[in-house]
Amino acid sequence: MADIKRTDAISGDVIHEYDGIEECDNELPNWWLGILYGTMIFAAGYWLAFQQLHVEPTAAEELAAYDAKQRAAQGTVNDEDVLLVAKQPASVVAGKQVFDATCSACHGEKGEGKIGPNLTDSVWLHGGGPVQIFSTIRDGVPAKGMPTWGPVLGAASVKNVAAYVLSIRNTNVPGKAPQGEPWKGL
Ligand code: HEC
User: Fold this and answer.
1) 49-82 pLDDT per residue, tens
2) Cβ burial 99-134 (10 Å sphere, 16+ → b, else e)
3) Do 29 and 113 fall within a single domain?
């Protein structure tokens, strides 16, 4: 059936009918349109301010920052925390200074290994990922002669020196023969 239009005798509304279904052609009320366009403008402004201009951290960023703070308070880290430090050249340099002063006696000046294992190969006794390296340094392996550095150096320095170890990992400086298992993780 064709589209038929009629004007309602009582309300004066223009009504169209199609296949027996009637619908008014009323204009949308301004208050309703105001809310619709208002939400659109708000969404665009929100996207611009939070996603593009970063005026304030987003809820997700705030949560991530809070989680990182909690981990820092507990002296734990995740891979991203350590990788973030590894991306800051000043921290890696600070880590190298700690290494030269504190670790090279046992791990060699270039990390090639002496009493302690070669840290420049891709084979690890306790895992070669960011968190594993951080944890081994923090907790040590006292039974095997690797001291517990967390209480001595503090979390920030342990992170820096872990970042430095990450930077020499897989550079294969000739030295002590590989010990452990090939590391295939991050
Ligand atoms: C007194 C000697 C000594 C000192 C000093 C020392 N280490 Fe070690 N380290 C060892 C020994 C020994 C091992 C091997 C432990 C084992 O056999 O489980 C080791 C293991 C490690 C490992 C794990 C290697 C793997 O294959 O999983 C890392 C990482 C490491 N040391 C980093 C450091 C850092 C960083 C420092 C300085 C803050 C440091 N060590 C200082 C003796 C030392």
Assistant:
1) 988 998 988 888 899 889 988 988 887 889 999 9
2) beebbbeebbebbbbeebbbbbbeebbbebbbbbbb
3) no
- pTM here is 0.75
Looking at residue 159, which CATH number applies to its domain?
1.10.760.10
Pocket mutation for ligand 1, best pick of 77, 85, 106, 121 (most atoms within 8 Å of C-beta):
106
Give the C-alpha separation, 145 to 78, whole Å.
25
pLDDT tens for residues 143-173?
999 999 999 999 899 999 999 999 999 999 9
Contact 158 CB / ligand 1 (< 6 Å): no
